[in-house]
Amino acid sequence: MREAGCPVPADGGRERSPERRGRRRHRWDARFSPYAFVAPFFVFFAAFGLFPLLYTGWASLHKVSLHDPTRMEWVGLHNFSRLLEDDFFWNALRNTLTIGVLSTVPQLLMALGLAHLLHYRLRGSTFFRVAMLTPYATSVAAATLVFTMLFGRDYGMINWGLGLLGIEHIDWENGTWTSQLAVSSIVVWRWTGYNALIYLAAMQAVPDDLYESAALDGANRRQQFLHVTIPALRPTILFTVVVSTIGATQLFGEPLLFGGSQTGGGSHQYQTLGLYLYEQGWFDFQLGRASAIAWTMFLLLVVIGLVNWLIARRLNSTGK
Amino acid sequence: MLPTTARRRARGAGTGAAPRRAGSAGRHLHAGRLTYGILLLFTAGSLFPLIWTAIAASRNNQRLAETPPPFWFGGNLFSNMATAWQDANMGKALLNTTFVAGSIALSTVVFATLAGYAFAKLRFRAKNALLMTVIGTMMVPPQLSVVPLFMAIAELEWTNQLQAVILPMMVNAFGVFFMRQYLVHALPTELIEAARVDGAHSLRVVWHVVFPVARPAMAVLGMLTFVLAWNEFFWPIIALTQDNPTVQVALTGLGRGYIPDESVIMAGALLGTLPLLLAFTVFGKQIVGGVMQGAVKG
Q1: Are B250 and A157 in contact (CB under 8 A)?
Q2: Most buried residue, A7, A34, A43, B23, by most Cβ within 10 Å?
Q3: Are B276 and A137 in contact (CB under 8 A)?
Q4: Residue B161: which residues within 8 A CB-CB, separation 6 or more?
Q5: Phi and psi of A65, rounded to 5°?
Q6: C-alpha–C-alpha distance, residues A89 and A66, integer Å
């Protein structure tokens, strides 16, 4: 399309030459400027995303100490085989999965319901939307510090409320299920409103005539929700599932600060993979092992991504 | 339900409801009492932990170890904040975080607008493949970069320096995608062509055509990025220490028993959240709009 030389006048007298040079510069500019515009992103990603990704893989094949990180001793796949024999790794993997389910499923279901309600004509709709997004503005650290107090065993507000109902004080932090529930509740609190707004945006994009024809077919409100809204939202739902799953796999700050320790509770009852990586690298000083955990997490994400993709493909082929 | 429907008709006739919605059948009904009730419940649930942070921050340690827990403000808010400001280094943390999040937001917005414009409006080889690559990079979790980044800053002796947490976050794939989605529709191609015919080179086009058109989306992206950067947790607690912390690093210090007084911990949490909450009260509508806008095409 932009082969050299076609639009340039052939004569090119001396008085025209600045114009010609300008035009050539113009063409050169049009051709290469797009690359210049996208380059910063790719340069930064190469330096701070791709290179570290690969180098982490390289480091996972070495014994590397936190105290002297430039000295790397080749150990092959030892870090990985050691990982698979470590009970704490399997424990962290299990915890990551259960906390992931406990936080993602209620979060997305509630968000869907809330979006449905926010889609009504509301007085003060802006107020509701902003209020539900404020937890998103609260940092993991601040939110976890508050929730730790609310879930306190002796003086926490939640146990006090349960006490009013005649329920004995629960030792949230020391139980396996109770601590995982508490950690999940922080995630649910922070992200439900955000996801509700995403669903709301998708609902607003559903054309009204779909509802009109459903109503003509005699579908009531509930049937309209199930058979018009939900199918129309399918791509969005899939998107939020992927994003929340990625977030759940990386869960780190909440379990770290809930008990204030990298072990994730006295018997590691809510230690996630992210926390386990942090413990191995920065408390046991084994950066090679930390790298192996990081790559395991990455592989896990790839598998989850593939499963999601397969499910999406199946849903799409059965939906049409 | 019936009275509200009737009210809707009355109001719709009276005020001339938004024309886009007026014709829609049955979907945009006025909410009933139950809807308002549930929404208020969720609003309370969303706001309560924040309000209680303020309540606990205004009490003292003894009062927080009594039953029932306090439900109203006490008189120690400012003294607790002062303690957190000094002993937990919150003053420095707030200053540092403002600088870090501001730099990250600025660079993200500029680079995302440039790349988003190229992906939305310009023609170049491998465009689609490159755009898919941008989206694919969102899958790479931050855990995969901490070990090499840690080695790098140890080598460069950047530990505890702010550029160590700014540089890795200067661009962001979501931003590129967000700006692309906006500019595809908002920026008329004729406008670019007209500027080009007038002889404007590409940087002039960016400065005089793209940036003015993109400004609303740039503002929203800036705010969203600022919030994310302000709350960034994993990498800062590895790269920085309590001597030169960001807010999240300082709060981590509080949470790990750096200071035993619960009311001071809550005062720190409040201080670290307050700037964003203020921004939310002022720009809440725009931020909500941005989240929803960024979501439409996932």
Answers
A1: no
A2: A34
A3: yes
A4: B153, B244
A5: -95, 145
A6: 20
Exposed e or buried b per residue across A77-110, where buried means at least 16 C-beta atoms within 10 angstroms of its C-beta = ebbbeebeeeeebebbbebbebbbebbbeebbeb
Which residue type sits at B4?
T
The answer to whether A186 and B49 have CB atoms below 8 angstroms apart is no
Q: What residues does each domain of chain A span?
A: 14-59, 78-319
Q: Is the pTM of this model over 0.90?
A: no
d(CA B48, CA B39): 14
Q: Which long-range contacts (CB under 8 A, 24 or more apart) does A207-212 make?
A: A208/B23, A208/B24, A208/B25, A208/B27, A211/B24, A211/B25, A211/B26, A211/B27, A212/B24, A212/B25, A212/B26
**Contact state of B248 with A49 under an 8 Å Cβ cutoff:** no
Are residues A134 and B238, on separate chains, in Cβ contact within 8 Å?
A: no
- Number of Cα atoms under 13 Å in the Cβ half of residue A140: 23
As given in the structure block, the two tokens for residue A256 are 């770290």
Paired strand residues for B30: A121
Number of other CB atoms surrounding residue A120 within 10 Å: 17
- CATH code: domain B88-295 is 1.10.3720.10
Length of chain A measured in residues:
320
Distance CA A112, CA A110 (A): 5
Nearest residue on chain B to A286, alpha-carbon basis: B147
| Contact status of B141 with chain A (Cβ, < 8 Å) | yes
Q: Would you call A139 and B134 a contact, using CB atoms and an 8 Å cutoff?
A: no
8 A C-beta contact, residue B174 and residue B294: yes
From residue B124, alpha-carbon distances to A33, A235, B121, B186 in Å are 9, 29, 10, 20
Tokens of A56: 């982490």
What are the pLDDT tens digits along chain A (320 aa)? 344 434 444 444 445 566 666 777 777 777 888 999 999 999 999 999 899 999 999 999 999 888 888 888 899 898 999 999 999 999 999 999 999 999 999 999 999 999 999 988 888 889 999 999 999 999 999 999 999 999 988 888 888 888 889 888 888 988 899 999 999 999 999 999 999 999 999 998 888 888 888 888 888 878 888 888 888 898 888 888 888 888 898 899 999 999 888 888 888 999 999 999 999 999 989 999 999 999 999 998 888 888 878 887 887 776 54
Name which of B26, B227, B285 is nearest A126 (Cβ-Cβ): B285
The CATH-assigned architecture of domain A78-319 is Orthogonal Bundle (1.10)
| Residue among B242, B225, B243 at smallest CA distance from B279 | B225
ipTM of the complex: 0.84
From the list B30, B150, B167, the residue facing A48 with the nearest CB is B167
Query: Do the chains contact at B49 and A56, CB–CB below 8 Å?
Result: no
